[in-house]
Design a protein that fits this description.
about 220 residues
Length: about 220
C-alpha cells in the first residue's frame, strides 16, 4: 500500500510468480509433416500459443494511453506473448560487461521469434500476419557516479553499447544512478518518491524516473 494512497490513473495487475518457468517457448514449426493440413494445424497451434495475451488486452486496450508489460529476462512463452501484444520492447541494463554481454544475442533471438511468427501466421492462411515488437530503446540503470560524473568504466560501456551493439539513437539519454534509496523503495514495493527514508528522499529529488518517463513519451508518443 502506498504511503499516500493509490496513484491516480494507474492500474497494476500482478502476475502469479508460479507462471515463471511454466513453459519452454511453446510449439515450433519443424520436422516432417505428412500433409499440408497437418503443417497448417501446427502453425495454428504456434500462433494460438502466442496471442492469448494480445487477445486478453483487446477488450481494455483503448482504456489506456500506455500498457507496460514487465517481463522476466527470458524468451519463454509468456515473454513471447508480450512481444506479440506490444509495439515496442525496451531493455533495462546495468552498463557493465556481464549485464550487457547478451544484448546482441537477445536482439537476434527476438528477430528469430519474429520470423517464426511471420511464417506461422502465413501458413495458417487466415490473412492476419503476426509481428513481434521492435526494439524501442535501452535504458541504463544503476549507473555508477563519481562526484557529478559517470565513472569511466560505465561511461565507456554505455558509449560502446550505443555505438556497436544497438545502434545510434536507441540508447536512452536518461538513466538511473546507483543510489540506495531506489533499493529501499523497491524493498517496500512503493515508488521512491513515496518512501520516507532519507536515502529515498535524496534519490527522489534527482528526478531520474521522471526524466526517463519524459524521454519515453517523446520517443513513443503517437
Amino acid at each position: 500500500k502506498l504511503a499516500s494512497g493509490s496513484i491516480r490513473n494507474l492500474d497494476l495487475i500482478p502476475c502469479d510468480i508460479d507462471l515463471l518457468g511454466e513453459d519452454l517457448g511453446g510449439g515450433q514449426i519443424s520436422g516432417v509433416f505428412p500433409s499440408m493440413e497437418s503443417l497448417r494445424q501446427q502453425a495454428k497451434a504456434v500462433v494460438n500459443d502466442r496471442v492469448f495475451l494480445r487477445n486478453a488486452l483487446a477488450d481494455v486496450i483503448n482504456d489506456y494511453n500506455y500498457v507496460l508489460i514487465d517481463c522476466p529476462p527470458n524468451l519463454y512463452l509468456m515473454t513471447q506473448n508480450a512481444l506479440v501484444a506490444s509495439d515496442w520492447y525496451v531493455i533495462t541494463a546495468i552498463p557493465d560487461h556481464l549485464s550487457t554481454i547478451g544484448l546482441s544475442i537477445l536482439r537476434k533471438k527476438v528477430d528469430k521469434i519474429a520470423d517464426l511468427l511471420k511464417t506461422a501466421s502465413t501458413l495458417t492462411g487466415d490473412g492476419h500476419p503476426l509481428a513481434a515488437a521492435l526494439l524501442g530503446g535501452v535504458v541504463f540503470v544503476k549507473v555508477r557516479i563519481g562526484g557529478d560524473v559517470i565513472t569511466n568504466t560505465h561511461r565507456d560501456r554505455m558509449e560502446r553499447i550505443a555505438r556497436d551493439v544497438v545502434g545510434p539513437g536507441l540508447c536512452f539519454k536518461t538513466f538511473t544512478t546507483e543510489l540506495i534509496g531506489f533499493s529501499e523503495a523497491a524493498e517496500n514495493s512503493i515508488p521512491v518518491w513515496e518512501h520516507t527514508s532519507t536515502n529515498a528522499k535524496r534519490a527522489a529529488r534527482k528526478g531520474e524516473y521522471q526524466a526517463i518517463t519524459k524521454e519515453f513519451l517523446q520517443r513513443f508518443l503517437t
